[in-house]
Design brief:
Elements: H1 8-18, H2 35-45, H3 48-54, E1 76-79, H4 84-92, E2 96-98, H5 107-117, E3 120-123, E4 139-141, H6 147-157, H7 185-192, H8 200-203, E5 209-211, E6 218-220, H9 222-236
Parallel strand pairs: 1-2, 1-3, 3-4
Antiparallel strand pairs: 5-6
GO cellular component, one term: DNA-directed RNA polymerase complex
GO molecular function: DNA-directed RNA polymerase activity
Enzyme class: transferase
Length: about 240
């Protein structure tokens, strides 16, 4: 497959249309102190490595999935609740992007999930850098606000290669992957029965349907989206 550089406008058009346990130190278990004491203790509890990381704009590495560090070589991210939109965009370009198991923003559990799954934590919350049990190079603070700009920031920062066959290869709803062949109209109706309504106007167009192997969400029009991306690729060769 060919590696394709990204273009904000074209990529945003495709995505916009088709994308829709860790042990703590004893000090971490103490009751919450008064506000004045909390401010003093916060300064003393800052992770010195993390504190210096706040002053660095460029990613230093290595990434959690680095093969030399015991990873499998495949990029994996965990987007916190401030970046769930970015998670969907990453999935649209075939990148493994999970979200927290719980909607409650509990920082220790969030970091624990990233550690357990060997994922790099993406967030807009710089306060996460203060935790003493945060390991080096486990977190990245996303600087941009718009989802399309955030996507390009992550891809460029971590030098991710987006191949043509990765586009729309993941479920934007759950991060799962699709079955290896498209469904017929009859198969799609049966797969969606009971939890998803496929519009009659879609069923009448004899389109290809794709089924997520994890959450069983049915998708359609994926092929036309990929065709648009291929045309875009031809223009930039």
């Amino acid at each position: 497959s060919q590696t394709i550089p990204l273009d904000d406008e074209s990529l945003s058009e495709i995505i916009g249309k088709y994308g829709s346990k860790i042990l703590l130190e004893e000090s971490d278990k103490r009751p919450r102190p008064s506000r004045m004491r909390a401010k003093k203790q916060t300064k003393s509890r800052l992770n010195p490595k993390a504190k210096s990381a706040e002053c660095v704009n460029d990613w230093q590495g290595p990434v959690p999935w680095d093969i030399s560090k015991g990873g499998d070589g495949r990029p994996k991210f965990l987007c916190d609740t401030t970046l769930e939109g970015l998670a969907k965009y990453l999935r649209c370009v075939g990148i493994d992007a999970a979200v927290p198991h719980s909607k409650k923003h509990v920082n220790r559990k969030l970091i624990g999930q990233a550690l357990w799954d060997k994922r790099l934590l993406l967030t807009r919350d710089a306060k996460l850098l203060r935790y003493k049990y945060l390991i080096e190079n486990q977190i990245y603070i996303v600087k941009n606000l718009g989802k399309d700009k955030q996507l390009n920031e992550v891809i460029k920062t971590f030098h991710l290669k987006i191949l043509e066959d990765q586009i729309l290869s993941r479920c934007t709803k759950c991060n799962g992957t699709f079955i290896q062949r498209p469904l017929t109209t009859e198969e799609a109706i049966k797969a969606a029965e009971g939890f998803q309504k496929i519009p009659d106007c879609v069923l009448n167009k004899n389109l290809e349907f794709w089924l997520c192997m994890h959450c069983r969400q049915v998708y359609w029009k994926l092929d036309s989206a990929k065709q648009k991306f291929r045309k875009f690729c031809d223009l930039i060769k």
